[in-house]
């Protein structure tokens, strides 16, 4: 359970330093994880980014202090990390639905986000179907975009990226050039942290042997041992459910660790929204 303990240690660190300027790098170090993979794990398990969690917790504490004390609003703004009372009021209203002044008068209801405690379900009530396979390095071709994961930009931007690709026919072109060792159109997460802090590349691509077709770029996926998980059901809910199972159930109990290289979502050429849809998640492990 060392994986769970490391994740909880990072969350505890956030809670102990809520009133300080801390970075995702600082937090990830507490979990002995890369910034990219900590943020990835955290967002899969909680459906929010690290930055959003910190904002919610700070504004929760600010609301409690506003209700219980006579502290000035300008003092609370600076205490909880806002440069101006106006910025604080805007963020406060977005979370709570009322302004700080209205909250002090008892107008409206406040929204509280409690301290996060990681609980892992190891009962295995719902079986996970997976296999461990080894593959040599292979080439993918496709299109890529860069997203920040510091503030959860990736959580919003990637679905929009897919919408564009599906609408303009790029996915059909990728299926046509898919002649490599993995069948299907791929969603590929690549950590750019070593060269561009808090940035990730996301590719929509296909495994392809041969020259790079016009309009596409190429990326080599290194030789890896892969844990390949089956995903049954319509997108996006089925995919999100299996991701949560992987991080909350499989990794803590399997003895495997993420190898730190790109991970894949594999979509076959069929209706992804059908109840009978089949797709896969490929995670490099060690």
Automatic annotation (TrEMBL):
Task: Report the InterPro entries cross-referenced here.
Answer: AraC_E-bd (IPR010499), GyrI-like (IPR029442), Homeodomain-like_sf (IPR009057), HTH_AraC (IPR018060), HTH_AraC-typ_CS (IPR018062), MarA-like (IPR050959), Reg_factor_effector_dom_sf (IPR011256), Tscrpt_reg_AraC-type_HTH (IPR020449)
Q: Which GO terms describe its molecular function?
A: DNA-binding transcription factor activity; sequence-specific DNA binding
Q: What is this protein called?
A: Uncharacterized protein
What species does this protein belong to? Heyndrickxia sporothermodurans
Q: What is the lineage of its organism?
A: Bacteria, Bacillati, Bacillota, Bacilli, Bacillales
């Amino acid at each position: 359970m060392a994986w769970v303990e490391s994740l909880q240690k990072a969350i505890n660190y956030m809670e102990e330093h809520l009133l300080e300027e801390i970075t995702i790098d600082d937090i990830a170090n507490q979990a002995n994880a890369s910034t990219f993979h900590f943020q990835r794990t955290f967002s899969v398990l909680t459906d929010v980014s690290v930055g959003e969690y910190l904002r919610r917790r700070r504004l929760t504490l600010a609301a409690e202090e506003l209700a219980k004390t006579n502290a000035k609003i300008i003092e609370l703004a600076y205490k909880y990390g806002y440069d101006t009372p106006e910025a604080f009021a805007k963020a406060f209203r977005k979370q709570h639905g009322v302004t700080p002044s209205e909250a002090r008068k008892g107008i409206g209801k406040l929204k509280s986000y409690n301290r996060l405690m990681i609980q892992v379900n190891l009962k295995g009530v719902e079986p996970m179907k997976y296999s461990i396979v080894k593959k040599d390095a292979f080439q993918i071709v496709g299109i890529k975009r860069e997203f920040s994961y510091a503030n959860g930009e990736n959580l919003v931007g990637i679905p929009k990226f897919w919408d564009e690709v599906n609408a303009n026919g790029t996915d059909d072109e990728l299926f046509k050039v898919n002649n490599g060792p993995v069948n299907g159109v791929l969603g590929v997460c690549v950590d750019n942290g070593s060269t561009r802090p808090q940035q990730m590349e996301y590719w929509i691509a296909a495994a392809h042997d041969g020259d790079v077709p016009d309009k596409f770029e190429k990326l080599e996926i290194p030789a890896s041992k892969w844990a390949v998980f089956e995903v049954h059901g319509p997108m996006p809910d089925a995919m999100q459910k299996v991701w949560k199972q992987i991080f909350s159930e499989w990794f803590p109990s399997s003895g495997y660790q993420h190898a730190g290289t790109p991970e894949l979502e594999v979509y076959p050429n069929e209706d992804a929204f059908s109840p009978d849809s089949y797709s896969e998640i490929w995670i490099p492990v060690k």
